[in-house]
Specification:
The chain has about 375 residues and is of the alpha+beta class. It has 11 helices and 9 strands.
Length: about 375
């Protein structure tokens, strides 16, 4: 048990999961120590070779069937990966988006030919995945997308721009949300797969300068008469994109909650260790009643959140996680993450404001959790519809 004293749920308690957790932790210790991650932050991108290294280690495609080159695991393995990323402080490596967002779209909605064409290469790291939803004028409102994909003969011609795209400087397989019939509303939206290597008219814009997540290449993308074969329409029929997105967003939102939970646990571990060691007015900071009360409150709230996240994971594994419950997890945990990280930073005093301390980076990195994957205000609207 960790700092929260929450026992692993039965579905995560198998020996194989524990062995995998240990292996993932050792992988990041070896290939992403603090000095390496600091270089990524300085360069504003994770080294491309890291993707190939992760592929060789079997960390890409964890929940993808072996028949398509994956590890043949399930969502529990993705949870372990996300938790280890957070606990080891591996900032900016967009592997969970690649594994647990992009690849499921291909697996769930792709034709057999598409699965065999793309999934094995995503599993090796030959292809790095991204999904291009957000536009300069369309964030949480996916029906407001302006990017178009017009069929001309046996090709689609894509025009439009995207922004805030995770893995944007690195990805060479991008699922693009576009309007194939702008007059049809939600039913006119489709998902199209663009392999960017050699794609005429495709341009990467700025690697965006962000408040946090400095190592993550979050980018603008431009599609200027980009031509792709019609067989790159994800699935067999046009107009399914909005429904495909709605089908996968619960997992994306649960991913964000899992990541937020990992950050909360790391923040508490670092802070508890610090206040036991740091002294003021002749005694350890932990000996002050205020410190004890603050951390008692944080631990209590974090424990409640952890139990709820475990409940959501269990429901998801059983295929029963609905959109509203996933929205609850996303908004509740990310709000709590920001609250707890802020309170922990305060206990570090002036050192908490120094960038060399992980708590300062966690403070910055946590802020976007309340925005991406659908803002927390949108999460509340989705929940309210069930009232």
């Amino acid at each position: 048990m960790g700092v929260l004293d929450v026992e692993k749920p039965v579905f995560m308690a198998e020996e194989e999961i524990a062995i995998f957790e240990d292996a993932v932790g050792k992988f990041f210790d070896e290939h992403a120590p603090e000095a390496v991650v600091a270089t990524w932050r300085k360069n504003h991108v994770v080294d491309r070779e890291m993707w190939n290294t992760a592929g060789r280690a079997g960390l890409l495609g964890l929940s993808t069937p072996e028949a398509y080159g994956g590890a043949g695991g399930d969502y529990r393995h993705e949870v372990v990966l996300m938790e280890q990323l957070g606990r080891k402080g591996v900032d900016g490596f967009g592997i969970s988006l690649h594994n647990a967002i992009v690849m499921p779209y291909v697996l769930e909605y792709g034709t057999e030919e598409q699965k065999r064409r793309w999934l094995p290469r995503l599993c090796t790291g030959e292809l790095v995945g991204a999904i291009a939803m957000t536009e300069p004028g369309a964030g949480s409102d996916l029906q407001g997308v302006k990017t178009t994909a017009k069929q001309v003969g046996n090709q689609y011609v894509i025009n439009g721009s995207k922004t805030f795209i995770t893995n944007g400087q690195t990805a060479n397989l991008i699922i693009v949300v576009a309007k194939t019939d702008p007059s049809a509303g939600a039913r006119g939206t489709s998902l199209l797969v663009v392999e960017t290597d050699g794609a005429d008219g495709f341009e990467r814009g700025r690697n965006l300068d962000k408040l946090g997540h400095e190592a993550q290449d979050t980018s603008e993308l431009f599609f200027n008469d980009v031509k792709i074969p019609t067989e790159n329409l994800l699935g067999s029929d046009e107009g399914q994109g909005f429904f495909q997105l709605m089908g996968q967003l619960p997992q994306e939102r649960l991913n964000i909650a899992v990541q937020g939970m990992a950050t909360i646990e790391r923040a508490l571990e670092l802070t508890i260790a610090y206040v036991k060691d740091r002294k003021a007015f002749g005694k350890a900071i932990i000996d002050f009643q205020n410190t004890q009360f603050v951390l008692a409150e944080c631990k209590t709230e974090a424990t409640v959140a952890k139990v709820f996240v475990n409940h959501c994971i269990e429901r998801h594994l059983a295929g029963k996680l609905d959109a509203a419950t996933a929205s609850m997890a996303k908004y509740w945990v990310t709000d709590l993450e920001n609250k707890i990280v802020d309170r922990c930073l305060q206990l570090f005093g002036g050192y908490g404001f120094m960038n060399e301390y992980p708590i300062a980076r966690m403070y910055r990195d946590s802020r976007v959790q309340r925005i991406y994957g659908g803002t927390n205000e949108i999460m509340k609207l989705l929940i309210a519809r069930t009232l």
